[in-house]
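Input sequence (264 aa), recorded before submission:
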Amino acid sequence: MESFSTKAKELLELEDDDPLGATGVSRKSLVIFFLIDTSGSMKGTKMGELNTAMEELMPEIRSIGEADTDIKIAVLTFSTGCAWMYPEPISVEEFEWARLEAKGITDLGMTFEELNRKLSRNEFLNSPSLSFAPVIFLMTDGYPTDDYKSGLKKLQVNSWYRYGLKVALGIGKEANDDMLAEFTASSDTVVHAYSGGQLAQLIKKIAVTSSQIGSKSMTLADDVLRDLNDVDVVDKKQEQLAEQIKNIVDSEEYPKDVPFDTGW
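Predicted structure, token format:
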């Protein structure tokens, strides 16, 4: 068996796109990625509720970061093709939500490939202060119209994705939770909204919870190397998030007993 010091040295020599080679710095940074479905089926109340929830979410996320943590936001929308809301991640202190419109089909496979390209220190994760693994939040109301499996396969070998905190929200009765579980690698971090009230509450509570867990979890510069022999180190964050999601859905405040697509 390789010694810890030997293995750690190998990891530090990995290519630039591997987060395990990140160096420690005084100010830490967390990037939250929102992947948002803007296809035609989202048109109307779904998109309106989502826009409002995201606008209300930003001030709540601003209150999460501590003095030594810079939280940044990156939004990737997908319909016929995909597009970034801004050309690079924006500090939450300066981020302004641009209201989205819905049209087109659901090119999720293309979106996964684009995310894979940007999950790199040569692209969106190029800040020298980056320490925390990213949070990735996927929201969709349907099933992909392209080959999502090939895009996901490329994404799954990306170290930033593998070490990131992943959650998915299915919107309405047509959303495919099995597909979303492939993205998060666990059905426990997939949740479903069947009404406008559920959608608004889930977006805000899960995004805030994910950010809190992400900004207090392992750093890529030191804790990953220190816990290298702990095979559960990556799963612990996902398990913590899954538990918090269950608490949100089981809480008395959560809207219950709503018919499919009520309020859309």
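Checked by second reader. The first helix runs from residue 4 to 12.
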